[in-house]
Structures are given as C-alpha cells and as structure tokens.
C-alpha cells in the first residue's frame, strides 16, 4: 500500500512540475522607458465580421454590439457586417487594446442614427 501511495504522489509531483514549466511567462510591468508600441486601427467599416476577426491581432479585445436594435447575439460571424467602430480608423491603439464594432445582419441597412453618428 505504501508503494502505490508513493508512486501516486510521485506522479502528481511530476505533473505539477510539467504544468509549472509549461506555463506562460509572466509579463513584466510596463515602464516609462519602454512604452508599448502603438498601432493604427484598421478600417473595419463595411467588412464582414469574419474579416474583422482575421484583420485584428489575436490578443485584441473585440466587443461586438448589434446596432440593428434587436439586441441579438452573433452566433455566425460571416452573416454580420460592420456599421460602426471605435476607435476610428487610423487612430492609434495599444496592441492588446479594445475595439468595439457595431454590426447588423447581412441584407439589413445600418440604422440612420448610426450612419449619421459615424460621420
């Protein structure tokens, strides 16, 4: 019985060591000497939501809002297209910055209030 307990404990320790060694390295805090590189926001207006996902960096936070008024959830991104975006196209943002897009289903027009607001 002791042998099986020791083998089990050894296996747990080995798995813990592998988990610790394969963990993502901790990011060092940003300092004033090395500010993060800022990048321009691409123009996403009129694009398919699927193209938006592929145009942005993988770690960019993307918030999607249905501006058609139905407060619907986006379940299939290729069926939606972008009416609005924040930050504006060309504005600088951090690499892991947040981008908010307002979308409607393909075949629907952008609401007039949204079209007027983006000009």
Architecture blueprint of SSEs:
Layout: H1 2-21, E1 39-40, H2 49-55, E2 61-66, E3 80-86, E4 92-93, E5 98-105, H3 112-117
Parallel strand pairs: 2-5
Antiparallel strand pairs: 1-4, 3-5
Number of H/I helices:
3
CATH topology of the domain at 39-117: Trypsin Inhibitor V, Chain A
User: End-to-end distance, in Å?
Assistant: 75 Å
CATH class of the domain at 39-117: Alpha Beta
In the sheet with the most strands, the strands line up as 2-5-3
Task: Give a nutshell description of this structure.
With 119 residues, the chain is of the alpha+beta class.
Overview of the structural elements:
The chain has 119 residues and is of the alpha+beta class. The chain has a domain at 39-117: Trypsin Inhibitor V, Chain A (2-Layer Sandwich). 28% of the residues lie in helices and 21% in strands. It is built from 3 helices and 5 strands; from the N terminus they run αβαββββα. The chain has helices at residues 2-21, 49-55, 112-117; strands spanning 39-40, 61-66, 80-86, 92-93, 98-105. The strands form 2 sheets. It has a 3-stranded mixed beta sheet, covered by helices on one side. It has a two-stranded antiparallel ribbon with strand order 1-4. The longest helix is centred in the first third of the chain and has 20 residues, at 2-21. The chain is elongated and about 50 Å long. The model is unreliable at 11-24 (pLDDT under 50).
């Amino acid at each position: 019985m002791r042998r099986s307990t020791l083998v089990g404990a050894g296996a747990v320790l080995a798995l813990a060591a592998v988990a610790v060694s394969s963990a993502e390295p901790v990011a060092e805090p940003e300092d004033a000497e090395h500010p993060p590189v800022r990048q321009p926001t691409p123009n996403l207006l009129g694009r398919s939501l699927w193209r938006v996902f592929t145009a942005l960096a993988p770690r960019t936070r993307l918030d999607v809002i249905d501006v058609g008024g139905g407060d619907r959830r986006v379940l299939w991104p290729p069926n939606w297209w972008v009416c609005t975006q924040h930050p504006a196209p060309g504005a600088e943002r951090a690499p892991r910055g947040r981008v908010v897009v307002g979308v409607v289903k393909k075949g629907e027009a952008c609401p007039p209030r949204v079209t007027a607001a983006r000009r």
